[in-house]
Amino acid sequence: MTAPTAGAPLPGLWLSGPASPLDVVAARSQMALSLGWHIILACLGVGLPGLTAFMEWRGIRTGDGTYTELAHRWAKAMGVLFAIGAVSGTILSFEMGLLWPRLMGSWGHVFGLPFALEGFAFFTEAIFVGIYLYGWDRLSPRAHLLTAVPVFVSGVASAFFVVCANAWMNQPRGFDLVNGRITHVDPWRAMFNPATPPQTVHMILAAFMVAGFLTASVYAVGLVRGRGDRYHRLGFLVPFTFAAIVTPFQLVVGDWAARFLAHYQPAKLAALEGLYRTGSHVPLHVGGVYHNGEMLYAVAIPNMLSILVGESPDTVVIGLDRFPPADRPPVTIVHLAFDTMVGIGTGLLLLGLWLLISWWRLRDLPRVRWFLWLASIAGAAAVVALEAGWVVTEVGRQPWVVYGYLRTSDAANPAPGLYGGLIIVGVVYVVLTIASVYVLRRLARRGADVAPQEHGVPSERGAARR
Q: Which region is the signal sequence (predicted)?
């Protein structure tokens, strides 16, 4: 497979002329807004069903109504989030065609398979979400619990398939390019490209972290306010422990992903570290601002980048000097986003270790109030790390939408008026955000008011399951 001349247009496109720089910015901004909003709901759709099923299983196993009541509450939230996520996901589907017609028109038949499979996963999830929500008190406890399994599996599968498509954009495979024409298309090879393993694992673990820390933070706020009953303690401990267990694995996978970049996307790795000059004994830069080929105000750890990439200070790391200026990502944005992601991930790891040490010594939460304050913002911090990670993935690939084959500026819709669409979509997401927060807050308050476990009394459903 040979790459075309950088940015060369492919035949068969019905649109003529390039998009203006302002329209390219509008298309990228709208896509970033939609993806950044939807990805939060997608993470909850991946992680929350598993947490809910676990709580229901514990309720059945122990007869403790607290677990059952939490599972019931989370199931309602899961239904609300699924409905809202379906709306934002539909918007994204239209945007792929409306904003990037040259991408979909020329390359859709190459990387469209994971989108089709994601559609099957979505419909399976939708069916069983309905059964799970409707089945409370209508199915036997074990039969009802089993209906949660397809919801969890379908949610993870949806995330896997969508990230496969994004991985292809980073490492396009599964086709030959002959005289500027795409031939010998192999959708399965395109789907399982070299970027698929690190990206999919990294994203699914991130979804588990976001779902766990975000759910736990709701109950951490209640604990800060003095609600130390079993309902709030379990509501905090279970998802927080789950997310804390996932976090060290995520850091290991992150290292795997960075090593992958060294071999397959060296320009992105160079941007992550603000590395201009190719060489060995390359330091790792923490913080700082990239300016004229130098990292200013950064803390440099000697030899560390070479060691992380090749396990030796003598490992040569490719810098930005090997790439034409037009093919270099915007370094400062990518570097700061990467540092934000890693910094928050490290902080969450330390917070989890704090809980582990306290539980090992006292069999209780840390008695320092600072722990609960930090835990209450851990969910928001995990979301920020998630968004920063997607900035690294997407902005770090620039100026390419299909790495090495199609530039972002060549893929955008040249039709005028894209800024109007950006404004409309922005208004839609403001409305969706307000509606989502309102419904979820009402649900949370009602749960706090009516939860019978606050006084140690098991619910009727919990008693029936004994």
A: none
C-alpha 466/C-alpha 156 separation (Å) is 31
Which of 351, 349, 345 minimizes the C-alpha distance to 374?
A: 351
Distance, in Å, from the CA atom of 247 to the CA atom of 242, rounded to the nearest integer, reads 9
Q: Encoding tokens for residue 161?
A: 């398939």
pLDDT in tens, 150-184: 999 999 999 999 999 999 999 999 999 888 889 99
Inter-residue contact 408 to 400 (CB < 8 Å): yes
Strands (E) across 264-383 are located at: 284-286, 289-291, 294-296, 299-301
Contact 316, 279 (CB under 8 A): yes
Q: Which residue has the tokens 């979400």?
A: 129
User: What is the phi-psi region of residue 7: left when phi exceeds 0, alpha when psi lies from -120 to 50, beta otherwise?
Assistant: left
Residue recorded with tokens 């809980």: 355
In terms of Cβ atoms closer than 10 Å to its own Cβ (0-12, 13-18, 19+), residue 169 is buried
* Segment holding 231, helix H or strand E: helix 230-264
Q: What percentage of the chain has pLDDT greater than the value 70?
A: 92
Q: Count Cα neighbours of 275 within 13 Å in the Cβ-side half-sphere.
A: 27
